[in-house]
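Practice problem 4.
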């Protein structure tokens, strides 16, 4: 009976641990931040079932964990077997990381050869928020003049970028747009060494993932790597209205790097769009105006005429997974903005919600990996949420104290 119980508990725990490790991209720093600040341990011990996507790495880690279970179990019994399984997950993560690094080296070499052969102009997009929507906007605008290849979805790591280059860049490619992500210093520099951007667009600086960087100063230095990685004569583009970017502008000017700073003035704003520079932009959420203005600035640097730019701006597609409107069976209008997991996106979603009539609620898992910034972010979000009728923050999301209406929202709107 003891062995049966050990097998059941260990199998359940294995699935959950591998699932969450996969969600955290097999990074110990992200897992530790989640466990430390976001009640991760309580989530792991919840009596629910999670299952990872069975990629090759997930399978290899799981098989190593099973091996650890069997070895520890044969030597010290059923209780120790569970410990062996956890040890096996750590060992499996370590040795599969060697395979990932080998793949990075090989694919990085292939991608570098392709870029050296075809020499497309490269635009690097980076920031604490707004990267994906900005990449999509500038891709649509530049496509009026150039043959454009862009990274897709969450392909903002070195390996993801290298594989997109290998797959799509060819002799017809004129512009490559690269969204860059990072959790610590050095990761953006590595990407820039590969792609060598002519234009570096910093969309904004905020608190997202600040715990992983070890503080705001390190976060800013990590983002600035895209500016330092510019080709000689390259241009760094900044949002003049973003307080967090101002220090980076000063750093760039001190180094003699050419900068372009854009300002955004929004006219009339409604639920289905807003006015920008005399053009009606059919995007839900006026916060996208800043990203559109940045895309316009980059397009002008790249030689696209305003007459062509405004045609595209007037028919820009809504960014993927942003403010998607759905009607539930119970007649509740649900606005899905779950792709945005940063403070600025959270605030903007509340602003958009205010354009609607009737009772308005926010349902959110909160914001993760804020570390010591959690109290300050909590205070700001609490103030913002006073503008609507209530909010329900899931228990394991990271900013539980923001709750104002609790689970009564779910009881009132059971159709959700």
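Answer key:
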């Amino acid at each position: 009976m003891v062995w049966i119980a050990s097998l059941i508990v260990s199998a359940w725990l294995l699935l959950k641990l591998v699932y969450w490790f996969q969600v955290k991209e097999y990074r110990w720093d992200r897992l530790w931040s989640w466990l430390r600040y976001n009640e991760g341990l309580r989530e792991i011990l919840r009596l629910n079932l999670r299952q990872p996507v069975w990629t090759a790495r997930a399978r290899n880690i799981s098989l190593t964990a099973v091996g650890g279970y069997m070895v520890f179990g044969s030597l010290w019994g059923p209780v120790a077997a569970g410990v062996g399984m956890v040890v096996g997950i750590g060992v499996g993560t370590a040795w599969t990381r060697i395979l990932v690094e080998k793949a990075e080296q090989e694919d990085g070499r292939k991608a570098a050869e392709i870029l050296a052969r075809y020499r497309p102009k490269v635009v690097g997009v980076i920031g604490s928020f707004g990267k994906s929507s900005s990449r999509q906007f500038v891709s649509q605008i530049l496509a009026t003049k150039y043959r454009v290849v862009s990274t897709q979805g969450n392909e903002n790591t070195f390996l993801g970028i290298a594989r997109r280059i290998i797959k799509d860049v060819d002799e017809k490619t004129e512009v490559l747009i690269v969204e860059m992500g990072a959790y610590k210093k050095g990761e953006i520099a590595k990407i820039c060494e590969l792609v060598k951007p002519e234009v570096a667009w910093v969309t904004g600086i905020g608190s997202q993932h600040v715990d992983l960087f070890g503080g705001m100063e390190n976060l800013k230095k990590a983002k600035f790597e895209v500016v330092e990685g510019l080709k000689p004569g390259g241009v760094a583009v900044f949002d003049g209205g973003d307080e967090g970017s101002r220090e980076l502008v000063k750093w760039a000017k001190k180094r003699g790097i050419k900068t372009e700073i854009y300002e955004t003035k929004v006219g009339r704003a409604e639920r289905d769009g807003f006015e920008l520079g005399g053009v009606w932009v059919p995007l839900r959420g006026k916060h996208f105006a800043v990203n559109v203005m940045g895309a316009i600035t980059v397009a002008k640097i790249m030689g696209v005429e305003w007459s062509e730019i405004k045609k595209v701006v007037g028919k820009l597609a809504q960014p993927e997974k942003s403010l998607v409107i759905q009607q539930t069976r119970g007649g509740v209008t649900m606005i899905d903005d779950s792709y945005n997991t940063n403070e600025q996106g959270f605030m903007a979603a509340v602003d958009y919600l205010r354009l609607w009539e009737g009772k308005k609620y926010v349902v959110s898992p909160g914001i993760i990996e804020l570390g010591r910034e959690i109290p300050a972010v909590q205070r700001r979000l609490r103030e913002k949420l006073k503008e609507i009728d209530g909010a329900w923050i899931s228990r394991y999301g990271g900013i539980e104290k923001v709750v104002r209406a609790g689970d009564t929202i779910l009881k009132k709107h059971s159709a959700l």
